[in-house]
Amino acid sequence: MTQGSLLRQILEYENRHDPYPLYAELRKTPVLNDGDGAYVVSTYHEILSLLHDPRVSSDARNMTRAAGPDLQQQEEETALPPSFIRLDPPEHDRLRRMTNTSFGPPHEPRRVHEMRGELGGIVSDLIAGIGSTDRIDLVEEFSYPFPVTVICRLLGVPREDESRFHGWADTLAASLDPMPGEDATERNKIAQKARTELGMYLAGLIEERRRNPQEDMLSELATLKGPDGSMTTMELLSTAALLLIAGHETTVNLITNGMLTLLRNPDVLRRLREDPGLSVPLVEELLRFEPPVQLVPNRTTLADIEIAGVTIPKGASLWLVVAAGNRDPLRFKDPDRFDPDREDIEHLGFGSGVHSCFGAPLARQEAQIALSELARRLVNPRLLEDPPEYRRNAVLRGPRHLPIACDDIMP
Fold first, then answer.
1. Residue 143: alpha-carbon gap to chain centroid
2. Exposure class string for 365-383: b at 16+ Cβ within 10 A, else e
3. 14-28, 83-97, 172-186, 316-330: segment of lowest average pLDDT
4. Cβ distance 41 to 276 under 8 Å?
5. Which of 113, 196, 256, 411 could disulfide-link to 143, CB 3.0 to 4.6 Å?
């Protein structure tokens, strides 16, 4: 097997259900030049170093050429400026600081914590709304609607408009997960229409919040005036779209991967049912063991960088396979075992460095509440398909559907 063919196997859909043996093979060459020009890094310490290296750019404008196998991911055709995750300092830092003013410490240290009761209410309503216990699609009936509802409440989308928001989220999610034989042109056209409608809706909501601020994040960002100035409407639209798409897609996978892992580890599921506090370390181990983001492609080197004895040249396309790094035996003991009692879980599930996941506090809390409540309320839950059908996206890995059954649902 050549190095290039190994990377292509990792990206092939047939291996989506279990890429970890291929990741183990990939780690034998910590820095791999795949033959198409991309440099692929797969070991923990090397990935961590590059995530903190200011010579690595996230800005697509610094890419000298596209390199590496096709991920079937098109850049969004949008008139919006790049969101801050696609920018480098100082532009990145300014927008992230401004967004953080409304989202978390030190300015709003309790915003996420104080959503806990509301999150629990959303979870309870979704579980109560599950239909037949003979066959539950956990993705469709629970994991998918939960995060987008949370984002709506966080931004301040009126309750009567949440269904429209769900529709746009559905369309944009489908555009990230193309199906075989699907007309790419038509898919992109539908996605672009949804992005345009979403942008117009948000623009109207932003103007309304500027005139009549409420107790929500969008109001605070729309009226913010601080050391970094104010966000333009276009910057605010990009930030709101980022919170919707990035915050939704990753959390869907985190919750679904989590339930799949628990059903494969019934002893841990039993412990969680008896002790909801186990959800805190359990989610951290889950982020190591089955991270929702498998790899970070399309970074660019701004200078020659030597790592693991290999010089990555300036202008190279860089791929960081964080899911491989999370199972690096040089960093984690017995890395292929799911162990919520693991004491040292400095995982790469939320990245690291200046681009560490902005929404990590919220995602953690969503997953903790969701998994502990599912464990408590579903009586004798079991998988109906293993492995389930996976999404085709190689970056955002998770089941497209997760059919399960249970004997009953506790109140």
1. 13
2. bbbbbbbbbbbebbeebeb
3. 172-186
4. no
5. 256
CA dihedral 31, 33, 34, 39 (to 10 degrees): 70
From 3.40.50.2300, 3.40.50.150, 2.40.10.270, 1.10.630.10, which CATH number describes the 3-409 domain?
Answer: 1.10.630.10
Q: What value, to the nearest 5°, has the Cα angle with vertex 32 and ends 26 and 36?
A: 115
pLDDT score for 107: 64
Is the pLDDT higher at 302 or at 196? 302
Residue 357 · residue 253 · CB < 8 Å: no
Half-sphere exposure of 71 (CA within 13 A, CB side): 20
In degrees and rounded to multiples of 5, residue 137 shows phi and psi of -90, 100
Tokens 């790049």 -> residue: 82
Domain-wise residue ranges, the chain? 3-409
**What gap in Å lies between CA 260 and CA 399, rounded to an integer?**
9
The pLDDT score that the predictor gives to residue 90 is 94
317-320 β-sheet, strand order: 31-33, 38-41, 317-320, 296-301, 56-57
